[in-house]
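Listing S7. Sequence submitted for prediction.
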Amino acid sequence: MQKAACISDPRESVELTIHLRSQLQQLLSTAIQFFIHLVTLPYYRFFQFNTTKPIFRLAACASNPSQSSKLIHLIAHWRTRKLAELQFISIAVRHPFFLYPLFADIF
């Protein structure tokens, strides 16, 4: 009695393993990028709100010479917001809120 040939070519098995590893690495890479984007989303929005949008408003106002008083006001407002952002970041770096319960004795 002859057995059915169920064992495939070892080369096919190696190629399948390499292909699966490649797909898993790509999936892991995509998952890590998604996680990084998700974690940094609040900072990205904070940066857009406090840096990028005000700079575009300043540039638009600076291109119109008749709005110099408004430009001075926008610069002062932007400076105040940037100083508040610096203070917030400095406090956040000194006292990481998510680690505080774990390492309360150290802080």
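Caption to Listing S7: primary sequence and predicted structure tokens for the chain studied. The chain has one domain: 12-94. Residues 61 and 69 are 10 Å apart (CA to CA).
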